Amino acid sequence: MTSSDLAQRIARTIRQDVQSSAAYAIQPSAGMVKLDAMENPFALPPELQHALGERLARVAINRYPVGKPGLATAIARHFEVPAGCSVMVGNGSDELIDLLSVACNVPGAAILAPLPGFVLYELSARLRGLRFVGVPLTAGFELDERATLDAIARERPALTYIAYPNNPTGNLYDERIVRRIVTAVGAQDGLVVFDEAYQPFSSRSWMAQLAAHPHVIVMRTLSKFGLAGVRLGYMAGAAALIEQIDKVSPPYNVSALNAEAALFALEHAEVFAAQAQVLRTERERLSAMLAALPGVTAFPSEANMILVRVPDSKRAFDGMKARGVLVKHIAGLHPLLANCLRLTVGTPDENRLMIDALRASL
């Protein structure tokens, strides 16, 4: 088959919107101080590395994984999921977002989310054939209450996402506005999904309120907990609701190794909690150092990242990369993010290198 034959076959069989889209970009990071992906920078202590290795060696990898119910129970217990609610696990929260699109794809369904926000809300909606409704935040990255309520009344979205805190801005929204949006969505018979990916670093959560709001789902990932390489996400909500959504989940989507690693991590949660405390302290120290840099605006954050605006973001990004520090250049994602970089909070040494590189690149 010639290249032209293959091109013709692709043109006939692959959706046009897929052909014209770009793949999710992952920056090469070999040899760099990697502060672009909101990862936990701390490795497991050596003694836990050894214990985890021995435990994973005993997993029956010749069998299909059957550990999801036990893992869901352990997650519900550890994260204090309210009575009457249940947990569904997935291969990262990315898969859960897509499964929500599949389960809620009723005729004419729409998905609503603030912008700028996590790109997979829109990507999943479009690939699954749902309408996506993006509502721009205010200039201060707060929810535009009037525009959001108008969109809810007009579009009657099946799903409304509220990232809590938001990615890439890092902030928690005004709780009074959030509650009015939750009420409005409920009155339209829609669902609200609180994406609490950064829960280990945040001062607020909707988990305890689930029982009182049966149309609300809380979704989290264990990536920020410290298991980005394990790819494990979960969401909690009213048991009858989660039961319906779980029907579209592949039967063996969470590998036995991933499930066992997650159970191991929950049994040693104090180690990850201590790491999160270090990162929260470093976030405040980093924010203070950024505020002292001329021409740099650092926005408030309740995540393990800080959004900054600089006079020339491309120059700053290129300069930092040339100095061996990799951050995320997000100025092109949305007009509200003009000249913005997203900086992951790293170890004390990594943060010092990042500040030095940024200062030299302004």
What can you tell me about this protein's structure?
Helix 5 (92-103) crosses helix 6. The chain is globular. The chain is of the alpha/beta class and 362 residues long. A hairpin with a 6-residue loop joins strand 9 (297-298) and strand 10. The protein has 14 helices and 13 strands. The strands form three sheets. The protein has a seven-stranded mixed sheet. Strands 9-10-13-12 form a four-stranded antiparallel sheet. It has a two-stranded parallel ribbon with strand order 1-11. The longest helix is centred in the C-terminal third of the chain and has 23 residues, at 269-291. The chain has helices at residues 3-13, 16-19, 46-57, 68-78, 92-103, 119-127, 145-155, 175-187, 223-227, 239-245, 256-267, 269-291, 313-322, 348-361, and strands at residues 33-34, 85-90, 110-115, 131-136, 159-163, 191-195, 216-221, 233-238, 297-298, 305-309, 325-326, 328-329, 340-344. Helix content is 43%, strand content 16%. The chain starts with a helix and ends with a helix.
